[in-house]
Fold this protein.
Amino acid sequence: MGESRYHETYRSWQADPEAFWRNAAAAIDWVKPPTVILDRQAGLYGRWFTDATCNTCYNAVDRHAEGARADQAALIYDSPVTGSKLSFTFAELKREVATLAAVLLDMGIARGDRVILYMPMIPEAVFAMLACARIGAIHSVVFGGFAAKEMATRIDDARPKAILAASCGIEGAKIVAYKPLLDEAIDLSAHKPESCLILQRPQLAATLRSGRDHDWAGAVTTAREAGRTADCAEMRATDPLYVLYTSGTTGKPKGVVRDTGGHMVALVWSMFNLYGVRPGEVFWAASDVGWVVGHSYIVYGPLLAGCTTLLYEGKPVGTPDPGAYWRVIAEHKVAALFTAPTAFRAIRKEDPEARHLKRETLSHFRTLFLAGERADPDTVKWAEDILQVAVIDHWWQTETGWCMVGNPVGLGMLPVKHGSPTVPMPGYDIQVVDEAGKPVPAGQMGSIVVKLPLPPGAFPTLWQADERFREAYLAEFPGFYKTADAGFIDADGYLYIMGRTDDIINVAGHRLSTGGMEEVLASHPAVAECAVIGIADALKGETPCGFVVLKAGVNTPHATIEAELVQLVRDRIGPVAAFKLAVTVARLPKTRSGKILRGTMKKIADGDAWNMPATIDDPAILDEITEALKAKGLGA
Ligand code: COA
Ligand code: AMP
């Protein structure tokens, strides 16, 4: 391990943040380069590159297609679930994107209009995101595992002019019909999009609604035959590139806004300095375009950096076996893989000895990056042992769009400490504070906050909800962004993430709100009261567990109601919630002031040691909870 340039780099950012980001901005082709780096008076905490103009699609696609990378693969699609593989050079990607962008213009979509995408992991999803970026439309991708009602909420918040969707997704061996879900969502929503562009996949054709739905392939063919393409629109650096909804502390998701200029600057910096890849290398983020990891590191980051990005439509296991990731890495000469620890837990469960792995075939593979949930040391060690490459945990959120705390491979790796995502990236002044906002000593737990301003790439606000942004993120610790994660910093400056301070849980790397699930359970006519907590799960990290108290006089068998509740969460939130466990109890444990003791319930369910809370109203209730969990095979 050579000397790392991390400390000098971080110090140079601390000494002069604007000079740091001015330098980083040189990696982008601007239409009008920035003279203002940070306008502290603009926006809710300052805005980056306020006088600059640029286009994200130009930087991700055109500049490579027009330069030395024209014939280099930009996008490799590998789909074990359909048995297909495709590759697009930057020149081909430009043709696809510019043609689809012309179709969007023909649909009346203009700069600033929102376009919802409901797409599986297929090249058209990437084309659609880039086509929106090209004409200045704001895309909002909705993950395929959400139910119609979740999509309807997003439609009503984003008010899209159009929706682009595929007829189906393929989840392992299952075909998931997307179109009926889309139709239901539009029926449920108050806002109605003018049109939908539907990609018919051969696995399952959808019925098109006349007047509203258009056939994707037909529209693209017509535009192509007419030789129609759209140019890149000149956007302000501060214009929104996309809105991505993420779970908040209620059932109403938060519309995280990403801007145009700062996003590009931050992502390119991260590709070279954090992920340590070079232009021309293959970068694989095994996530989904519906999540922030997919936005930043399947689509924008690698393409902006001139890398080849890999789009994998499959699972870590079962498509067809736990050797799938090794096959993809070997076949496409992947240099770096980014995935959630859950994927490795899934592989390990099926192939603990890694018999499917032939290390000599992975000669291009240098680094494994993990994020999205806690990287448990056991899984990290296993990955290190079997792969014999660096395994890097790093910590970030949908809100920040890129890494807050990581181990900067490009600057020279720092020693790894299992359980810690390592150190703050330039741009992030991370502090751990007590309830009064006072920094706590090294080693002591507290709330993790980031000193404002947030760096380029992080969200400037929530979609048309400045007040909610202030309230959710800025109000509690004035001058700081509240991450809602808790943890500590050790004597060497390494951060440790210990958990959330709000109701968010992380299920298989998917971010979910237990408050949202409680709203669904409470809507069942038999339920008087409920509480949802995340309990430890060997594969998914956490899974939700819902405790319900039934209304007096309900005679339906508990098992029937519990099954209805499981189905209700699936119907309202979606299969991704992975809500499989409802437990009927007589009463919920509360403090004397009426606060439900979720933390203690979690400890009981996880079989951890717990102390009787001093403020508990009736200690006997915890015995009842213990018994109810035991009956389900949970707890000590
Ligand atoms: N469209 C429709 N349904 C989807 C979906 C999608 N895009 N993604 C997941 N689902 C469904 C699943 O099919 C499953 O349905 P089921 O209840 O009928 O079985 C449900 O949502 C829960 O999915 P998941 O929690 O992912 O569990 P799983 O058992 O299907 O897979 C893993 C478990 C570990 C293999 C999988 O979560 C995985 O590959 N995770 C790692 C990578 C990752 O996606 N990280 C996220 C962001 S970095
Ligand atoms: P998301 O917005 O979906 O990326 O989820 C962000 C949340 O996931 C964070 O606030 C953390 O709670 C958790 N998280 C993400 N990365 C890590 C990590 N490396 N270690 C621990 N928790 C993480």
